[in-house]
Write a structure and sequence with these properties.
Largest sheet: none
Structural class: mainly alpha
Number of strands: 0
Mean pLDDT: 79
Shape: globular
Number of helices: 4
Order of helices and strands: HHHH
Strand content: under 5%
Length: 85
């Protein structure tokens, strides 16, 4: 998997976020911030374990209420892990 697949998953996540109802503003903003941080990290190729930790935390928080968001977040986490990020 490549950074292109991560970017595709991030785009899918943004689209799913736009369509998800019932997500509180704080979580929505936190996910958008996380997406932006991951995109910045991909652009700069710097190593930042904090994003991986935040991503795993987001997956745990969303898995029961928002399974589609969780699936996309999971794909992103696996791809980042495979790339060593």
């Amino acid at each position: 998997m490549s950074s292109e697949s991560i970017r595709n998953n991030l785009a899918a996540l943004k689209q799913e976020l736009a369509q998800t109802q019932g997500l509180d503003t704080e979580r929505h903003t936190a996910l958008l911030d996380l997406i932006n941080q991951i995109e910045t990290q991909l652009d700069s190729s710097t190593d930042n374990d904090n994003n991986a930790v935040q991503l795993k935390k987001s997956i745990t928080e969303f898995e029961t209420e928002y399974p589609r968001l969780t699936a996309i977040l999971n794909d992103i986490a696996v791809t980042l892990s495979n790339l060593g990020i």
